[in-house]
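Hi team,

As requested, here is the filled-out complex form for the glycyl-adenosine-5'-phosphate run. I kept the field names the same as last time so the parser does not choke. Let me know if anything looks off before we queue the next batch.

— J.
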Amino acid sequence: MATQEEVFKKVTSHAKEFGFVFQSSEIYDGLSAVYDYGQNGSALKKNIKEYWWNAMVQLHENIVGIDASIFMHPTTWKASGHVDAFNDPLVDNKDSKKRYRADVLVEEYIENKLVAKINKEVAKASKRFGESFDEAQFKSTNPRVLGYQEKIKEVENRLKQVQEDEDMTGFKQLIEDLEIACPISGSKNWTDVRQFNLMFSTEIGSVSEGANTIYLRPETAQGIFVNYLNVQKTSGMNLPFGIAQIGKAFRNEIVARQFIFRMREFEQMEMQFFVRPGEQEKWYKYWKDIRMNWHKAIGFPDGSHRFHDHLKLAHYADAAADIEFKFPFGFKELEGIHSRTDFDLGAHEEYSKKKLRYFDPETNESYVPYVVETSIGLDRMFLAVLSTAYEEEKLDDGSERIVLKFPPFLSPYKVAVLPLMGKDGLDEKAKSIVNTLKFDFECTYDQKSKIGKRYRKQDAIGTPFCVTVDYQTLEDNTVTLRERDSMEQKRVAVHELANILSEHVNMKNVLKKLV
Ligand code: GAP
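And here is what came back:
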């Protein structure tokens, strides 16, 4: 049985082999943590975007979309806190010359050394006590577990303290006290910890005109905040209302690994929901539910998602949670839901000296709205969909197939039309079927190679249906319809195809589950 790591490797090489994801500028040996989407990848990505956009904007009368620029006035990033506080604490191992995020080293220590030990104790006890095992009671009474919990608390508190105080000497001391070793060299020979800003900068204007440093946006949210009043005034919307956006963001990530999980150039799908001060808790809970439902409606296996409520909050938040997804390398953050208070609009008011207030016709008051944000990485969502879909199957005849079992509404192609032979009028008939279906469904046509091989190729890119045109088709206008997951084939009339496809591949059917 392949390990999760081996499966993940197979997923990444499959993604390249079948035109989903390529390393950026690969002919020059690539650029680390930057990727390009190929012909099938860009189609899958487009469908995920559409699912998000339709669920957020089309299904909510009080949410509108915008498309703000990547470049913004540099003061934006001063006001948002990114210039001063968007840093990662970095530390190098002098022997392996590898660079790490100091906080990640400590968090991995907690997970691998302490949480793992608690889980082991729980598993042992659960086996011992069988059905009568009460996990909560065991955890709150077992002395060894209590000891580990105590240690976790102590390490977390120290981590929180050095982060809050930006105490880089204390950070190094913490790593030394925990005796954390470099996973590569195994040594504890660390440099000092130092802060590293994650924003990419460039210059705008020619030097003679006076160059000015600007940043590539590290989140799309600020494009929404600075346009809040423009949208509110021109749309006439009353609170609560939301502004949604999909767009590129850039971060000079140091821990850049796990394929497209952590990239330097990536896309975010963000929505800021503007609410009355005091109502943020209600809306935070509301959006947590709505977003979890969006994920679940896709049809992932049960247990693929969980909430991780933040104990340690960013300076701008009064509540925050991640929706974590079970990636092949474990549960990791896929989406963040943040109650951002009035921090961002308040800061932009202060720095721009422009009023960003909302006049509430119900209370006759003016105030800076509070904001609940939902923020999901499109590339991470892509990875969640791709890695869950990947399956290797042994078939009854002893052969194997690799199949991407995408939820049909997300598949790059919904149907492949395949003439049994590329001659005798079968090719023309197949093309005429494509020409009738292509207005409603993403279709592909293939007449090369044996039919079995063509089915495998469509399985490998996740096409839910294949339509085969044979000699009988010319006589009675019926085709063979093959379903990807069951591989079942049935004879159907050409005029039935659109209805059958609609029933199984239409995004509308999934969106309806959300309302
Ligand atoms: N506006 C809030 C914000 O940007 P975040 O937690 O830093 O919050 C939100 O990012 C989401 O963006 C994450 O949950 C993740 O899905 C995605 N994301 C963040 N950094 C990323 C990176 N380097 N590569 C890919 N996706 C990333």
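Two things worth flagging: The domain at 4-74+216-387 is CATH 3.30.930.10 (BirA Bifunctional Protein; domain 2). The mean pLDDT is 94.

Thanks,
J.
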